[in-house]
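Checklist before submission:
- one chain only
- standard amino acids only
- sequence pasted in full

Submission:
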Amino acid sequence: MPEQLTAEARALVQRAQDFATRELIARAGAPASVARPEVVAAARAAGFFGMTQPREYGGTAASTLTLTLVRETLAANNAPFQDAVFGPGPGVLAGVGEPLATSHLAPLLAGRKRAGFGITEPDDAPAPTRARIDGDWLVIDGQKSYVTGGADADFINTLVQIDGQGPALVVIDTDLPGVRLTRRFSSIDGSHHAAFAFDAVRVPATHVIGKPGEGMPRAMRQIGDTRLLIAAQCVGLMRWTIDYLTGHLAAPDRSGRPRGDKEGVRLRYADLRIHAFAARSMLYRTARLADAGENVVNEAIACKVYASEQVGQVVDTAIQLVGGNALTDDHPLSILYRRVRSLRLAEGGSDVLRLNLARGILDLNKGRI
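Returned file contents:
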């Protein structure tokens, strides 16, 4: 738990808290076009921006625990522009050789190119996205949907079935002939996604990330890292919500007594603190196991499922205890309710992840939980 942190780690938490107050919350309401570049510059100066980037590219490659500490602290402030604090990570491009290291990874980390991640086919897709080999080229046909940030992406790391070789992650530049942006849409949480069609798109065979057949494991490693990121954000948002609710319940109602004096209210309030404590304990234990070199795929699944479900319950209960004022569009709990609902589907829906965890134990005899 955080109570076991070293003095250095506690100092990092305080730095993150100061940064959230000084650089993020202070810019609430500012136009994103103005605020985001300012936050990026401040994050670089404070040493946060490079935490997610490899050392060979000028980053600091922070540990899982370090990233968890900062992410949870920022989320516990429900601060705007949090996504501008950390620099782009390598994602599935981690460790790639040439030519991708120069043509795509380096400009991605430098912020000169943007990447999307295309793994999901739309429900009406007739078949998975496929590629046939034509000499030194791949010719790709198919569709992808829910490509996060795809409408602004310069390239998409795309899961493709290569004929005779299996699944592979392939870098597809969005300006190539045959790449069509077919739809841009937003989700309930305000995030933006895109759908693409690939019509006989010719891509150099050197754009395969790693080797054919490695596509799904590489994609799953990227998704696994993101699951722990989501869990840290959920835990921080639980803390923010409970702090907000604590202030509300301490204030007097019309009778002059604190709103939290009612037994029914206290029972619900205690439940929220219990669930937040459990989620936070899971998160920090998993972060330490990851830094010790353990395979934490199941632990990350458990953290993501539990934290994303409980943050939804915490916000929902807080709205119930605050009352009708919390239902207005501009109330912070109403805004947060829409944000956290999507997290139960991000990087794998809760029941899909439950089945994955069960399969690991029952069918593969792998995992500890």
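Reviewer check: Residues 14 and 52 are 19 Å apart (CA to CA).
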